[in-house]
Specification:
Blueprint (H helix, E strand, L loop, with lengths): L2 E9 L6 E8 L5 E7 L7 E5 L9 H12 L3 E5 L8 H4 L4 H18 L5 E6 L1 H12 L6 E5 L16 H13 L1 E4 L7 E4 H8 L3 H4 L9 E7 L7 H11 L3 E4 L11 H15 L1
Parallel strand pairs: 4-5, 4-6, 6-7, 7-10, 10-11
Antiparallel strand pairs: 1-2, 2-3, 3-5, 8-9
Length: about 280
Amino acid sequence: MRLLLRISSESKVGRCFFVEYIKIRKQDSNVVPCVKSIPEDPKGIVIAIHGFSSSKECATYKMLLRRLPEAGYGMIGIELPGHGREEALQETLRIEGCMNSIGAAEKYISETWPGMEVFYFASSFGAYITGLYISMREHLGRKAFFRSAAVNMPSLFVKKNPNEKECKWLAELEQKGYFDANVDLGAPVRITKAMYHDLETNDLFEIFNLSRFGDNKVAMVHGAEDTVIDPNAAKAFARKFHIPLTVLEYEGHSLGGTPKTPETVAELAISFYNT
């Protein structure tokens, strides 16, 4: 059973909605810190899953907390294991633990708003995790929007010909059982031997399945100048699984090259949920 541990709230000026910070206990007793905003009588609730080195305080969540309620959708942004500054940071990063966090958010939604439609908005590493989640587990949502999806996430760490930095990581992994990875996205994240093995054995290109657990739909957006996740990998993934992909010119991994770009991404997601 997932338990709601704490709620604190703050009102936002302008249109009337509230941002709340909540904590959900998973079945294994680990805690998922979350941020949420739910308008009155929502069309559905979007579970947001952040990227590698990010947290529930990220700019994307802040944008979604505004844009989704304005469009009639609720939003719950979870914090993944090994990330942030609260309880999630104390949980070792593993793929199973990340999927459990999504599942805990779904359970919370189903218990609090029975019958509510669920959607996903997943960024980078979060999109990799969400892709695995909808392919490997029973789930509530049927539409997932992938932003700068790390469809080739394992290749960021598992290399046939590692460079100097990657060789240092592998040496630390052998000596200490972990390394602290910094891929120029934010704070370093600890990769243990177990997580490294998770990445070695979970190739999204091989595992992804849109129909194994129901009729799922995915839409993607990616920057043409992304230097973290190769746009060609995103294009190959979209082709293989017949997923609509919007490529934004002159944009990198953060999709924040101009003030309008995050708004464009939000509009794409909302349009996708509305159809």
